[in-house]
């Protein structure tokens, strides 16, 4: 009797071990899928706040507002607040040289990269507007996505699309804005194309754009193919918006771009109903594109002729 019981116990143990390994594997896979689904948006969207750049812009704005006359030969800086259901959005508007806060102008509405806040981008534009005439005749506005800078809310795909709509409508209703041109860089090409697909914008500029959100993820971790695409909860496919854009866009991409490969931008250009003007840069790295002289010159030419 004892031997039979021992034998049965050993058999039961073997059966449990037989199922234990597959159950562990299944458990690990489920855990991996859940973690990937939750964490992957953080790879692409990284809320940032450049406090030093914000302080510098605020100081310039205060000096321009309260000095008897403008103390610096540079565009006027205006802080922007846009009321939003999920939390107010904040950013900056740079008024062109020799203009005032109430002066009428065309506006370039800029959507930044995945970790670029409005203060960082606005300060870069301020320096470019001061030192060159690439944006001559244009105001530039940069509004933080939800969760970026001091904007409220959380940076989900739907919230970012809504913020693009709110930003466009805010400036469209300003009495000192004539035409609105939309520009996106890297991750910002998605919301920029979305805004251009939703409204009759005067122009669309895309710097290092991507075709689908999977392009962005796979440029970091190349595993999101086939069924693995289901693990991406954040949806922002530029190609879907491109098909609804009515204006002729300008696309700029570099063959040396290490984050968004050149082929992704080239593939996107085929989705526009109006043939895109495509400018190729040969040596600019991804982070160098917003300040590349060839790119800035192409943007300036595009703005002046549209």
Strand content bin: 15-25%
| Poorly predicted runs | none
SS class: alpha/beta
What is the helical fraction, as a range of percent?
Answer: 40-55%
Summarize it:
The protein is an alpha/beta fold. The protein contains nine helices and eight strands.
Task: Report what the structure shows.
The chain has one domain (45-305): 3-Layer(aba) Sandwich (Rossmann fold), CATH 3.40.50.1820. It has nine helices and eight strands. The chain has helices spanning 2-44, 51-66, 118-131, 157-172, 189-198, 213-220, 238-242, 262-268, 293-305, and strands at residues 76-82, 89-95, 105-111, 138-143, 177-185, 203-207, 250-254, 277-281. The protein has an eight-stranded mixed beta sheet with strand order 1-2-4-3-5-6-7-8, sandwiched between helices. β7 (250-254), α8 (262-268) and β8 (277-281) form a beta-alpha-beta unit. The model has no long low-confidence stretch (mean pLDDT 85).
Supply database-style keywords:
alpha/beta, 9 helices, Rossmann fold
